[in-house]
Design brief:
The chain has 155 residues and is α+β, with helices and mostly antiparallel strands. The protein has 2 domains: 2-41; 47-154, Sandwich (Immunoglobulin-like). The chain is built from 2 helices and 9 strands. It has helices at 2-8, 11-41; strands at residues 47-54, 57-58, 61-65, 70-83, 93-98, 101-106, 112-122, 128-136, 143-154. The longest helix has 31 residues, at 11-41. The relative contact order is 0.19.
Length: 155
């Protein structure tokens, strides 16, 4: 008897599409709220990057002397990576590119890395070139800075 009564009542079928739409809208809203909370639990922090020394000299300037094209220039760069609170970031990948040269390395526990940059070239008609830096670390926004290091001709 209950079975026949269920099939005879057509009101449940008429309201079914509207109920499904309401359920889907509520489910999407709840899912969006959950995803937003997950992103808040693990927010990305910012990185601070500082050039400590280039070629053994403090700062971000490396000088070369000579006329014409100067190629196969190599030097060491010390870079320090900290978070927004000034704490060192270990395991960050630091990459230097530009002036036809490149170098990369990972920071240690103190947040510093010494990178050997090789194959830098200064063309005959150039008095300065620049190198850019890119730093990536888990849990942080990628850091990019153009003209991070200056290679300048003197004399």
């Amino acid at each position: 008897m209950f079975k026949n009564r269920w099939f005879m009542d057509r009101r449940g079928i008429e309201g079914l599409p509207m109920r499904l739409i309401i359920i889907v809208v509520v489910a999407v809203a709840v899912l969006a709220a959950i995803l937003a909370m997950l992103n808040m639990v693990n927010p990305k922090d910012t990185l601070n990057v500082e050039c400590i020394s280039v070629g053994g000299q403090e700062g971000n300037l490396y000088t070369v002397s000579g006329a014409g094209e100067i190629s196969d220039i190599s030097f060491n760069v010390v870079v320090k990576v900290t978070n927004s609170e000034g704490d060192p970031v270990s395991g960050a990948t630091v990459t230097l590119t530009g002036a036809n040269g490149a170098g990369s390395g990972k920071t240690g526990d103190d947040g510093t890395v010494t990178i050997t940059v090789q194959n830098v070239k200064l063309n005959a008609n150039e008095n300065k070139e620049y190198m850019d830096v890119t730093v990536t670390a888990s849990g942080y926004h990628e850091y990019n800075e153009e003209n991070f290091i200056v290679i300048a001709r003197v004399g």
